[in-house]
């Protein structure tokens, strides 16, 4: 990888009006050190996107790995969440999930591709999410397999409705995913009561593997908080780099 000019790292903010959601959404775009308009950068789209920057420290961690020669230059797009409608937006059976998915696929992604030098094929695109954001990432893959097939799934909220979607599938061999869950996520408070994310993620791993998906699954000590997910970012980016290398980036 070429030597990077650290002085050119920057994060830009945009507001996009979504006709599908009938509202504005903020996105933050991390441009790697040495960003050039004539390149073709891989790109990662993140749900709960602003928190990926503030709590997950994704820009800082990615920059350091690039400086160390462990990660190719990468554009990272953080899609802001509307907390009051998060469940309706992210849950596959949420009232606004279809509209949110169309916003991501038909408005956010085209906007980013028009503004920045990012890849426009599934081998150059990644999607990341934590908890319900991981469920949204998997659902969007099922809706648009040729658009997104490389996912980073942190402590996915893989409730029965999400597992049912996967059970209905017979072939998920075009999906590659990094999965991680905390070993102490056995009684996470959700609106319906304590939920065992740990075993739900184990069950989802099995369902995906049975359908031919390529899964890099990890467990580690931790609970359902950003402090845990932040610690997993370096390994998640290592998996991302392996994907790029395997695909000839």
Q: What fraction of the residues are assigned to beta strands by DSSP? A: 15-25%
Which percent range fits the helix content?
25-40%
- Tally of helical segments: 8
Query: Tell me about the biggest sheet?
Result: 8 strands, mixed
Kindly report the CATH topology: Rossmann fold
Apparent shape? globular
**Structural class per helix/strand content?**
alpha/beta
Number of DSSP strand runs: 10
Cα-to-Cα separation, first versus last residue: 11 Å
Give Rg in angstroms: 17 Å
Q: Could you give the order of the helices and strands?
A: EEEHHEHHEHEHEEEHEH
Average per-residue pLDDT, rounded, comes to: 95
CATH architecture: 3-Layer(aba) Sandwich
Unreliable segments of 5+ consecutive residues? 1-7
Give the tally of structural domains.
Answer: 1
> Strand order across the biggest sheet?
1-2-4-3-5-6-7-10
Q: Which CATH C-level class is it?
A: Alpha Beta
Full CATH superfamily name:
Alpha/Beta hydrolase fold, catalytic domain
